[in-house]
Batch of 2 targets.
Target 1
Amino acid sequence: MESYSAFAYVYDQLMEDVDYKGWVLYIEEIFERCGIKPKNIAELACGTGNVTNILAKRGYNLIGVDISADMLFIAQEKSRAMGVEVIYLNHDMRELSLPTELDGILCVCDGVNYIADEKDLRKVFKSVYHHLKDGGLFIFDISTYYKLANILGNNTYAENFEEVSYIWENYFEEAQKMCDFDLTIFVKEEDTYRKYEETHSQRAYEEKEILDQLKGIGFKKIECFEAFTFSDPKEESERIYFVCQK
Ligand SMILES: C[S@@+](CC[C@H](N)C(=O)[O-])C[C@H]1O[C@@H](n2cnc3c(N)ncnc32)[C@H](O)[C@@H]1O
């Protein structure tokens, strides 16, 4: 994931249309629905802290974990600007080791899709369970197989802003169930543009594959929803949420 080093600096601009406040409200609705009032929450693959910092502002104690020091650097700058305190840890979630038991663990906006290997995914799920208090919630989403194979995969996107422009060429490999995103980013530096190239890869998981991985871990309740609703996922859902209660 060293590839995030250049991307980190343009990530928020590329995500500017995402309603992170809405995501947080949805997560709070899940807390309420499950009857928990969490205090201590960790967010895995927290990136530039878009969800982390909003939750911290709303009074929760947050630990943000990410493999990219560059993403965390930006997350920290933003938490300072927002006047919130978040513990940011530069960790690989496949080797999770957190200092405390938590009421909630989150992993939103595709974090799980970055875990390409099924054995690693099972390891992440096991250690999340281990870090949760009884009754605690693990909430995560995935970009669906449908979205990676049919919408993002084998497609090219481009956007052109004054400070940054990008071309995003995507390739879906059905045999490996992997979607590779080849990114070319041009960042304005005084009177010139510097070109960065990097590749990101996401694993396409079917809902059932995730449910199979979660089975036997010990969660007493596992639910699955079409993102931002409490309805069952549909064949053409692009993002689905999993809610697992210990
Ligand atoms: C698409 S970004 C999502 C960031 C953030 N959750 C958000 O909502 O904007 C995916 C993040 O996953 C992180 N990541 C990928 N693999 C990881 C791993 N093994 N452990 C921890 N973080 C990881 C990347 O560094 C990146 O910040």
Target 2
Amino acid sequence: MSTPRVRVLMYHGVDRVSAARDPHGMFVTPRAFRDQVEHLLEAGYVPIDEATYLAAGAGTGTGAGAGTPLPRRAVLLTFDDGYVGVGEHAAPVLASFGVPSVLYVPAGLVGGSSDWLPARHRHPLMGASELREVAADGMAIGAHGFDHADLTTLGAADLHRHVGAARTELERVVGRPVRSYAFPYGTHDARVRAAVRAAGYDGAFAVHDAAGPFATGRVDVNATDTLRSFRIKLHRHYPRARRATERFPLLRRAAHDLVGRAPREELSAPEATGGGR
Ligand SMILES: [Zn+2]
């Protein structure tokens, strides 16, 4: 029997947002999100919660799984940034299916907006009461920096604010333990991984550059995904295949041609969700 490997999915927003206001495709439509969750359950994947994930100590798939064994098709759903649409559209779907997840929030931007992005690409983030509500419905809350700065650029005092103080602040806001961390932009180095570990977190997530349980890789699910590409991303070997296509861009384009791309919505009211809250 092979070593169980947890598939960790990384979402950002779940909402209907035009391509013009979301050029990087961070927002999955509510409909696509529901289809993806239904597919996970129908295909026999077993969504696990943060506590189960951390107890397994199996983040990297490198044989670190010294803790509690996980189901063979375990999957952990994560959401970065804390967009309002995740509370409005994703949390109710997850709650209705009893699917747990983890939401990574920049501690200094609770109730603010994604103002690390250019003005017209910003979207509102959940406030304290919304975070407490989704937490009560089964979303663990994790830390995602203080104001979404790239940790690798910070001096020691700022690093503490974005790691240790961020945790204290989020625990105060949510009233629950904050146990894991997701690096803004997925960027990390040995120094920031050590800072996260020293601050008492039990694990941390990167994106493509995995480096042990304090920088576990995740699979990015985004607006361009069809149900077909989503299924391919769930494959155990997907992260390795992706790294290969990164080295060979033509292969990557060919793969996209093969699985298709979801059409982006062209909604006409560009400022409908208001960016500056
Ligand atoms: Zn982020």
